[in-house]
Amino acid sequence: MHRQVIHTKAFIGQPKVKSAATTCRSINSSVQIVEHHEALRTSNALEIFNQYPLYYLYLTLSLLITLLVV
Known about the structure:
Elements: H1 16-27, H2 45-49, H3 54-69
């Protein structure tokens, strides 16, 4: 349940990436979010991550690891 607080009933039927982005923007309207409407796979990970500076990659991977471990 703790990972689902970003997705409310208002977003039922919408992609999770859209509800997550909308919720993050409502918390901090100055945040820049790039929505990727595709699953992260080994076949597309480099293509997606190569679009961003290394420190963004580090932060993203840290967040993903945190979500998977918790």
